Amino acid sequence: MGLVEVAQSTGDLRAILPSDCEGIDDIHQELVLAIHHAIRIRGVEENLAPDERPPRWMWRFDEPLQAWFEEVERARRDKFGLGGDSAPEGGQVLSNEYAKGRGR
Question: If you count Cβ atoms within 10 Å of the first and of the last residue's Cβ in the chain, which end, N or C, has fewer?
Fold first, then answer.
């Protein structure tokens, strides 16, 4: 996780690839999946409130993790009174003085 964090912050994932890697064809699938998973978990840490984050034991298991995220989404919809679409009826989202007349 730490290496992926450093690589993301510098904008260069090459730092975590094997030194003999000359192109994408040289990267083992297991490493690609591990990097993808680490980036996904980092996104969770950055974008979810602490009470919405899955427990660490779950990070390695796709099915329970997917179920967790579905539950978080359902809880958000219930909490904020949203249906399947987050926009209010009619699609008008902007409602302050600066936004008047810009929504349609």
Answer: C
Token pair, residue 22, equals 């000359």
> pLDDT digits over 72-97, tens only?
999 989 988 876 555 555 555 556 67
Say which residues have a Cβ less than 8 Å from residue 19's Cβ, sequence separation at least 6. Answer: none
Question: Rounded to whole angstroms, how far apart are CA atoms 68 and 86?
Answer: 20
Residue 39 phi/psi, 5° resolution?
Answer: -65, -40
> To which residue do tokens 């994408």 refer?
24
Nearest to 28 by CA among 67, 20, 83, 101: 20
Alpha helices in the chain (DSSP H): 2-10, 29-47, 62-80
Q: Are 38 and 30 in contact (CB under 8 A)?
A: no
CA distance 35 to 24: 13
Q: How far apart are alpha carbons 54 and 51 in whole angstroms?
A: 8
